[in-house]
Amino acid sequence: MILIDYKDRRPIYEQVTEKLGELMLRGVLAQGSQLPSVRSLAMELSINPNTIQRAYQELERQGFIYSVKGKGSFVSENGPMREAKRKEIFADLKCLVEEARCVGIGMLEFQEQVIQYYGTETKGEQV
Q1: What is 12-77's CATH topology?
Q2: Does pTM surpass 0.85?
Q3: Among 14, 15, 51, 21, which Cα is nearest to 35's?
């Protein structure tokens, strides 16, 4: 489910936050589903529970999850999160297109690469 890269310079809580966010956006963690308890996830990943607590707080701040006192943390509706991620991707794409133009990459060459990468990276996977 979640793999921690100890060579990554980012703090572990940021890695956990990112991985859980990806799982939610991909639908692996469905809307309304309960997340593992802080303690159980910390044990599973062999990391400090405070690290998981911080990741959960960050996910809640970002709107990915919500907490119910005495019951735990649950996955929020992901429609707004998906739309925000979609906008972010298209903004990144716009920057890439502008950069490609600046270095002389033509539109057709750029399109061919996008089609090639999109086709090979997401085979059989629809998000």
Answers
A1: Arc Repressor Mutant, subunit A (1.10.10)
A2: no
A3: 21
Give the end-to-end CA distance of the chain in Å, rounded to a whole number: 18
Q: How confident is the model at residue 125 (pLDDT cuts 50, 70, 90)?
A: very low
**Residues 28-53 pLDDT 10s:** 999 999 999 999 999 999 999 999 99
12-25 and 49-62 helices cross at what angle (nearest 10)?
A: 50
In the beta sheet, which residues pair with residue 66?
74
Helix (H, G, I), strand (E, B) or coil at 70: coil
Token digits of residue 32 = 């309304």
Dihedrals phi, psi of 7, to nearest 5 degrees: -85, -15
Spatial separation of the C-alpha atoms in residues 35 and 64, rounded to whole Å: 11
DSSP-based three-state secondary structure for 63: coil
* Domain spans, the chain: 12-77, 80-121
Indicate the burial class of 49 (C-beta count within 10 angstroms; 0-12, 13-18, 19 or more): middle
